[in-house]
Specification:
The protein has about 290 residues and is of the alpha/beta class. It folds into 2 domains: about 70 residues, Muramoyl-pentapeptide Carboxypeptidase, domain 1 (Orthogonal Bundle); about 190 residues, Aminopeptidase. The chain has 10 helices and 6 strands, in the order ααααβαβαββαβαβαα. A 6-stranded mixed sheet has the order 2-1-3-6-4-5, sandwiched between helices. Helix 2 packs across helix 4, helix 5 packs across helix 10 and helix 7 packs antiparallel against helix 10. The protein starts with a helix and ends with a helix.
Length: about 290
């Protein structure tokens, strides 16, 4: 009986721990030889905190390794040269302290790049994947927000599903809201692209907000107008949304639909770096407006 009770207790504790955010950062574990956007983020953060990784080129080489080990030693971490959850969290704190005063100083924003990993999101008739548009737009938005002094946390930093690299895999939607809630974010902005196969002519921008939340509605309206203006796309509407990430976060939350994957005009624009940048600038202008900054 004791063994049964003890086993049940262990299962209960593990189940609870899965639901509790066990880390404040969703970036992947990086090691010597890795490449990609996540490595660029690491290199930028190291440089920002005074530990030069050499060229910010997306390659985790010897100079990045040396800079990372130096950072880890300085901040009381094991200098193993592996960028895991504890190191990411320390880099975030150090980066926040090192930023200049800005209009969004003291504001924590969670940006949620839709889909990722095995979840491509909507796929255009021409083979484009939604996840490949939402991430670069999110990364550009983060860069602009940090220039204004905001603390920005992403639910994913690369092509993977949030929660996959936690000590025990967690449902991706739970991971997204968990990251926002555990970091006491001031706002949550989820970035997506729409799709409407029934009518490929439909094009434009939409914003969804948490049902019954006046602050979420205000955030949605503040974002929708600037995004439509900077992108040149038509604003199709702002309305309540039934989405999990909106209804399980504790702060004002909005889901932006930036163009339609089923519309050739929208997709051709979404492929362009300048257009992704325009969307990011629109989001940032909306956030500045929301906070009255």
């Amino acid at each position: 009986m004791f063994r049964i009770l003890r086993g049940s207790a262990i299962v209960f504790i593990v189940s609870i721990l899965v639901l509790i955010p066990i880390r404040g950062h969703a970036a992947p574990i990086l090691r010597l030889g890795d490449t990609g956007q996540a490595v660029i983020t690491l290199q930028q953060m190291l440089a920002q905190t005074g530990f030069s990784p050499g060229p910010v080129d997306g390659y985790f080489g010897p100079r990045t390794l040396a800079a990372l080990k130096s950072f880890q030693s300085t901040y009381g971490l094991v200098p193993d040269g592996i960028c895991g959850p504890l190191t990411w969290a320390a880099l975030e704190r150090a980066s926040e302290v090192s930023r200049n005063l800005g209009r969004l100083r003291g504001i924590t924003i969670v940006l949620d790049a839709g889909h990722g990993g095995k979840e491509p999101g909507a796929i255009s008739p021409w083979g484009d994947k939604e996840k490949d548009f939402t991430l670069p737009i999110t990364l550009k938005t983060r860069e602009y927000l940090e220039r204004y002094g905001a603390r920005v946390i992403l639910t994913r930093y690369g092509d993977y599903s949030p929660g996959w690299d936690w000590w025990q895999p967690v449902d991706e939607l739970l991971a997204r809201v968990s990251l926002a809630n555990s970091n006491a974010a001031d706002i949550f902005v989820s970035i997506h692209c729409n799709a409407y196969p029934k009518d490929p002519a439909v094009s434009g921008v939409m914003a969804f907000y948490r049902a019954g939340s006046a602050e979420s509605a205000r955030l949605a309206w503040n974002l929708a107008g600037p995004v439509a203006r900077t992108s040149g796309l038509e604003l199709l509407g702002v309305q309540e949304g039934p989405y999990y990430v909106l209804n399980h976060t504790y702060m004002p939350a909005v889901l932006m639909e930036l163009g339609f994957m089923t519309n050739w005009h929208d997709v051709s624009l979404l492929r362009q770096n300048w257009f992704q940048d325009a969307l990011a600038q629109g989001i940032v202008r909306g956030i500045l407006s929301y906070f009255g900054r």
